[in-house]
Amino acid sequence: MPSLHNLAAGIDRDLDAVTAGLTPPWSSGAVEGHVNRIKMRKRQMFGRASFSLLRKRVLLA
Q1: What Å distances lie between residue 5 and 14, 22, 45, CA to CA?
Q2: pLDDT for 46
Q3: Measured in whole angstroms, how far is the alpha carbon of residue 49 from the centre of its chain?
Q4: N or C, fewer C-beta in 10 Å, the chain?
Q5: Is the model's pTM score more than 0.85?
Q6: Contact residues for 45 (Cβ-Cβ < 8 A; gap 6+)
Q7: 41 and 50 Cβ atoms separated by less than 8 Å
Q8: For residue 37, what are the contacts with CB-CB under 8 A and spacing of at least 6?
Q9: Do 41 and 58 form a contact (C-beta atoms < 8 A)?
């Protein structure tokens, strides 16, 4: 598979740039926690209520 070999060689040549791109100095953990909480509420309320009630529950939580 020559295309895969070329990809691996390119990543190896630019290893410093690839490493810098994959390791940002900040964390998105807090945002992911909020997204996870909202998705959980959405799953709990599926088929039971309207969007307005979901919005109220998310804003008041």
Answers
A1: 14, 21, 48
A2: 82
A3: 27
A4: N
A5: no
A6: 53, 54, 57
A7: no
A8: 61
A9: yes
